[in-house]
Write a structure and sequence with these properties.
The structure is a single chain. This protein is α+β, with helices and mostly antiparallel strands and about 350 residues long. It has helices at about 10-20, 35-40, 60-75, 95-105, 140-155, 255-270, 315-330; strands spanning about 1-5, 25-30, 45, 50, 55, 80-85, 85-90, 110-115, 130-135, 135-140, 160, 170, 175, 180, 185, 205-215, 225, 230-235, 240-245, 275-285, 295, 305-310. The protein has 7 helices and 22 strands. Strands 8-9-7-17-18-19-16-20 form an 8-stranded mixed β-sheet, sandwiched between helices. A 6-stranded mixed β-sheet has the order 11-2-1-15-22-21. The protein has a 3-stranded antiparallel β-sheet with strand order 3-10-6. Helix 1 (about 10-20) runs parallel beside helix 7 and helix 3 packs across helix 7.
Length: about 350
């Protein structure tokens, strides 16, 4: 079996990993987009979210799965890609702290009391105490993307090219792209998927995220620090990633002066240490209206697949869902129903695009 995978973000990376592991021939078609959401994402896997400190969807399955598989791919690439940092959460109010206390009293496996929050008073200004969220992971996404791309190139599984959909032809026997043939094609391009005739009817709901990259001398890098909706994440070369926003009314994918100003004010309010901003990054996330991803095969064109709409949870969802998707193709095993793109049958009006018998 041979498959085309369009896009080498986090979704395309993991889908290609599982297909190759299953013995398939793979061609990943991608042209580097440095402002794609995977390249500027924090890489954090956090098992709780929101003001009510809700356990994230499928956390009990996704956390151990993520720990194992990121360790495995790191060994394959000769890189340390996953770190169990844990998160120190500093609630913005006593009401928020009470939500954390309730989670602890209910026996949450993820939220734990912090016995000596006073030891952080020389680093931060906070008034409502602190808790520890663990396990919580940081994934080195940039190293993963670069090293996996190089690995694919060495295996002759990578085509560096802008995907041009008018060259794609479908038939009952398979798919053709330019002079290449395969059995399936999978769209893993993030926000670009919505431009495809196959998937444009799906209820995408994109949002924009921004972050600053800063130097904060003296801040211990062994943990992630969370203040309300803002997070300080240990980054590359000793720097820190600080973000992020969820802007549903963006004009473009560029960094905004308003975010930088607001975030610098925030850092001055919570940090007892000096800092300097060294970069300002932004990207548009491929989210969905129902906050569940799109995975599966097109109901009218079963040679065409999708893995997208992962939103802020792509780093944890993509390894697991791509594994499910490969099993769906190879063995017919059903996908997680709440992620299966088939739940949107009404989004696929009849059409035919370059359908022919393959010569």
């Amino acid at each position: 079996m041979r498959v085309f995978i369009i896009g080498q973000g986090i979704a395309g990376t993991w889908l290609s990993y599982w297909f190759l592991k299953a013995g398939a021939d793979v061609v990943v078609i991608d042209n580097l987009q440095p402002n794609a959401s995977t390249w500027v994402a924090s890489g954090v896997i956090n098992p709780v979210t929101g003001r009510q400190v809700v356990t994230t969807w499928m956390a009990d399955e996704l956390l151990p799965f993520s720990e194992k598989i990121y360790t495995d791919i790191g060994k394959l690439l000769g890189r340390d890609l996953i770190r169990n940092c844990g998160i120190l959460a500093f609630p913005a109010s006593e009401q928020m702290m009470e939500a954390y206390r309730k989670k602890i009293s209910d026996g949450s496996p993820y939220v734990h009391p912090l016995n000596q929050p006073a030891e952080y008073e020389d680093l931060f200004r906070f008034a409502a105490g602190a808790v520890c969220i663990k396990p919580a992971y940081w994934i080195d996404l940039q190293t993963l993307m670069v090293c996996w791309r190089q690995w694919l190139q060495r295996k002759d599984c990578f085509l560096e090219d802008n995907f041009e959909p008018h060259y794609l032809q479908l038939s009952q026997e398979g798919v053709r792209y330019k002079n290449l043939q395969a059995d399936y094609v999978f769209y893993c391009q993030g926000i670009q998927i919505a431009r495809s005739d196959f998937w444009s009817g799906l209820p995408f709901s994109f949002n924009k995220g921004e972050a600053l990259v800063a130097d904060i001398p003296g801040l211990p890098a062994g943990q992630i620090y969370k203040f309300g909706i803002s997070t300080l994440v240990p980054w590359h070369n000793g720097k820190w990633w600080i973000g992020s926003t969820y802007d549903n009314h963006f004009r473009d994918d560029k960094p905004t002066p308003a975010f930088r100003q607001k975030t610098e004010i925030f850092l001055k309010q919570i940090l007892s240490l000096p800092f300097s901003v060294e970069d300002h990054i932004a990207a548009i996330r491929p989210a969905t209206l129902d906050r569940r991803p799109f995975a599966g095969l097109h109901p009218q064109h079963p040679r065409v697949g999708i893995l997208g709409g992962l939103g802020t949870k792509g780093v944890s969802l993509s390894p697991w869902l791509s594994h499910q998707l490969v099993n769906r193709v190879l063995t017919g095993t059903p996908l997680q129903p709440t992620a299966d793109v088939a739940r949107f049958q009404h989004a696929f009006p009849p059409f035919r695009q370059n359908i022919s018998r393959m010569p």
